[in-house]
Amino acid sequence: RADNDLMFPEVAGAVGPFNLNSKEAALFEQSHTQLGTPRLLAIPEPSSDNEKKKVGRKKQKHKMSQEPGDDGDDRTREHPFIVTEPGELARGKKNGLDYLFDLYEQCARFLDEVQQMSKERGEKCPVKVTNQVFRHAKLKGASYINKPKMRHYVHCYALHCLDLQQSNHLRKLYKDRRENVGAWRQACYLPLVEMARQNGWDIEGVFNRNEKLRIWYVPTKLRQLCHTEKSKDSDSCSYE
Amino acid sequence: RADNDLMFPEVAGAVGPFNLNSKEAALFEQSHTQLGTPRLLAIPEPSSDNEKKKVGRKKQKHKMSQEPGDDGDDRTREHPFIVTEPGELARGKKNGLDYLFDLYEQCARFLDEVQQMSKERGEKCPVKVTNQVFRHAKLKGASYINKPKMRHYVHCYALHCLDLQQSNHLRKLYKDRRENVGAWRQACYLPLVEMARQNGWDIEGVFNRNEKLRIWYVPTKLRQLCHTEKSKDSDSCSYE
DNA sequence: AACCCGGGCGACCATCGGACGCTGGTGCC
DNA sequence: GGCACCAGCGTCCGATGGTCGCCCGGGTT
């Protein structure tokens, strides 16, 4: 039959079910490039996992089979973030904000790779940091990157990209006040809402116009804040 | 607690679960504007349903409760398309290609509306014709628009947008040869692949550069064809 | 050592983009 | 009227964007 979309006989067979996208066949992933450690993890503030790098030990499965006397270093969970000022190294079992922001740059790099690959394979080419990118990052060994975390702090990174000055001030302020990360994170919204106001409330546009931000989805909460602020604005002056 | 993302007390309550997006609350939809019939359905070639417009009768449910002697006019399925040349009205219980292409323009209009609405509500604003747009079209009474159909013929519409001349020629050719719609549809791929070749195989870019096409996803089949043709190109000259 | 605070991220969910193939409309004989 | 063709579109499916809250790490007492 000629239909069922199998046109171009020479093509049909060759192209058919050949999308490695969704599983990213380990073949392609394991190899070389090693983005994770040499350049990237080294740059910012690796209080995280390369303190001693006891390499991968067995993954403890809920209190079972844990050598006694060895409380290991194969941490599963990343150390929590604390508010640090720019250039400051986090003390103790914590990670600083420079490290947090570097994670976003790493993701951008992983996105680049995914884009390159999908172009070579003739697949849909992602424009944003998608699930596929997180999966790719994991396969490349960047297990410290995960979706919920990255999405959680996107707007903090946004402020960092859009107004480094103000972002740095806020970090210093919240550090000196000994506020926790959650409080700092919340505080990052306000300056962004102000920026949106100055850009006709087009927060989407604000993101898209910035080279580094373009690849990140605007967080729902930020969009909502902009929306309600806009409404309050136009409420309070009853003309127009 | 201050976290759990409920910051800005005055905002939290007001904004919370107020996304009408996914159901499009009939309230907002039923009303006015009536895109469907007056301007749009009237323009092209409504061999479709307004021949007599016996308004909505009961939807027959698989041979049950059908007034005898009344084999009604409440057609469920649209009349199939036939290959028509530009300006030609389809004869009999068929629809012509001008009508098909108009459906795409209607979708663009529905997308506009959805974008307007989502901007007003501070929701994510779709850039492409998404499920939401099809749902909106249906709610607005354009029941003759549906996703599988529109996706099926996207590349035909693409040719129509990108090279009207060639599209028209192809239509005439296939009409004169008395080819069926499926054959014409298949034939539409080739000129597009050629266009992609002339644009560095960037079919995505070809779509995005065209005002009307930008809102449509590049069909998988077309992307795959471009990919395999590209491979054949570079195979056949062994240098580089 | 025990406790409690805070936040990392596993895992879930609604919805998405995408596709297949059944159903039945349609024209021909 | 009956049949064979073929295409419309209901309906499914894997994967996506987005989120919640459990679990436990870590600092404090």
Automatic annotation (TrEMBL), chains A, B:
One of its GO terms (molecular function) is DNA binding. GO terms for cellular component: nucleus. It is found in: Nucleus. Residues 37-79 are annotated as: Disordered. The keyword Transcription applies. Residues 69-232 form the Floricaula/leafy DNA-binding C-terminal domain. GO terms for biological process: regulation of DNA-templated transcription. Keywords: Activator, Developmental protein, DNA-binding, Nucleus, Transcription, Transcription regulation. Residues 54-63 have a biased composition (Basic residues). Probable transcription factor. Belongs to the FLO/LFY family. This is Floricaula/leafy-like transcription factor. It comes from Psilotum nudum. The chain holds residues 133 to 372 of 372 of the full protein.
